[in-house]
Amino acid sequence: MAFEKDKQLDTKKIVDAIENAVYAEVKPLGFKKHGRTLHRFVGEDISQVINFQTGCPPKGVYDVLWVNIGIRVPECMLRSFACEESAKKYYHEYECNIRARLGEVEGGEEKAYDLHLSEEEILSDILRQIKDYVIPCFSVLESREAILEKRRYYPNMDVMNHRLILLENAMIYGRMGKAEEAQRTFNEYYNSKAGEYKGHEGQKSHQYIKSHMEYLEELAKSLGIEIRNKT
Asked: In whole angstroms, what is the distance from residue 165 CA to residue 169 CA?
């Protein structure tokens, strides 16, 4: 995909109008506006994010809008059971561990909105997906307990990191002080990787899986978790 830069198109004005209209809808739900990011905290320190990304000039992509969706659980990003020392006022979508884009959240491909098209139609589609898919998910995944229990129910909101659910569950259990659950879940994830390692001998992914397991072994040491390899 590549859109040439249209000097006649006021991209900033268009995206400002779209973002402001979305913000008007979600502000009563506790979201605050920070540049191109709409953000709210739930469960004290869990972030929920709607981000407006306009183009990618290094790749020659202009005059296009993506809407990024994210949920950030601090310990999942920090890989630590400890509380975050200095939480920021807000977090970007790329700092989230549960991530997707509009289009994906309804089970399709990510949507890249051509800003040459009708602003009203673009806004209508964005609002529809946010109301029908994003906010209902955000409303459920508002606590660590809910994320542990129900994250799997929203695969379309978890496109980028769904393979890490077991590992991130271990991080959440550890943060909650549930050491046995953290140990069990971490080992379940580790042993799933060990199984993949044995099953991918001779393939390009073999070395990558080995490196990931080595990372997990170092992480386990830092977390005080004992690796119990069943394979």
From this structure: 6
Q: Which residues contact 35 (CB under 8 A, 6 or more apart)?
A: none
Together in a domain, 76 and 186: no
Which of 45, 49, 14 shows the shortest CA–CA distance to 34? Answer: 49
pTM of the model: 0.92
Q: Which amino acid is at 141?
A: L
87 and 182 in a single domain? The answer is: no
Cα–Cα distance measured from residue 15 to residue 65, given in angstroms and rounded to the nearest whole number = 8
pLDDT tens-place string over residues 157-210: 999 999 999 999 999 999 999 999 999 999 999 999 988 877 667 677 778 889
**Which of 184-187's residues contact partners 24+ apart within 8 Å by CB, and which partners?**
186/216, 186/220, 186/223, 186/225, 187/225, 187/227, 187/228, 187/230
Q: Cβ neighbours of residue 141 under 8 Å, at least 6 residues apart? A: 48, 71, 98, 147, 150, 151, 154
In a domain, 231, yes or no: no
